[in-house]
Design brief:
This protein is α/β, with parallel strands linked by helices. It has helices spanning 44-51, 74-79, 97-102, 117-130, 146-159, 176-191, 203-209, 232-240, 244-247, 256-262, and strands at 4-15, 18-29, 33-37, 59-64, 67-69, 82-86, 164-168, 195-199, 212-217, 220-226. The chain has a six-stranded mixed beta sheet with strand order 6-7-8-3-9-10, sandwiched between helices. A four-stranded antiparallel beta sheet has the order 2-1-4-5, with helices on one face. It binds adenosine-5'-diphosphate and magnesium ion (MG).
Length: 263
Amino acid sequence: MSDYVLEMKGISKSFPGVKALDGVNFQLKSGETHVIMGENGAGKSTFIKIITGVHTLDEGEIYLYGKKVNIKTPRDSLNLGIAAIYQHSTGYPDLSVTANIFIGHEKINKYSKTILWNRMHSEAEKYLKSLGADFDPRVQLGALSVAQQQIVEIAKALSTNAKIIIMDEPTAALTKRESEKLNKIVEQLKENGTSIIFISHRFEDMFRIADRVTVLRDGKYIGTWNKGEINSNDIILAMVGREINQIFPPIDKENIDEWKDIY
Ligand SMILES: Nc1ncnc2c1ncn2[C@@H]1O[C@H](COP(=O)(O)OP(=O)(O)O)[C@@H](O)[C@H]1O
Ligand SMILES: [Mg+2]
């Protein structure tokens, strides 16, 4: 049995004119919150979209609980127990919260073929309550705040029994208070054994919720650290990189003898 819930090996993905991912490795442990950091354009979202089946990989392998899997569509990813929450809701604003939570796996009476709305509403209510939300699941999704819509997406992930929940920059559109609430929810999901991949630019998020952090830069895997092993300077360095000639002045032929004197 593998130590990892999810393992990605040598993942590469190109778009016309850009190698968005170049041999990226990644391992997610059971029940951990793994934060992925990197500058804009580092390849974070592309990496997530490969796990969620939005993009297919050019090269590399994906293992779930040690078993090689093919993820070709979002449906494949959902069926494997993976759910994603994006910065902005991808739900249907005109439909109720309940409909959004259960879309694709509605509760239906086998014999009469009727949709069991009351059962779905009460289950939706249960999920929302477990996430500390108190709005009515009968309201339209579009009537809710961004933070509330994210909670609906998390409730949806719980309703599909997702074992891996991925959040792509979820705090970017939230206020500080809403972010703190989301961080609490992440802690609670983790206590229930869910493994979480969390993408963020914010160091506060990272220091608050991460067990480990992985840094990507220019589509390349830079490294993975336990939270306690790394400070924000180290992470910035890993994210932006540092050319060797910024540390040492470039050596030209004229002053090479000087350098020899020093060393
Ligand atoms: N659908 C796409 N088509 C073409 N280029 C893309 C597409 N998605 C991402 N890219 C490019 O791939 C690189 C990585 O982007 P992305 O994964 O969104 O980075 P991040 O989420 O870290 O900001 C960028 O250069 C971006 O412009
Ligand atoms: Mg992104």
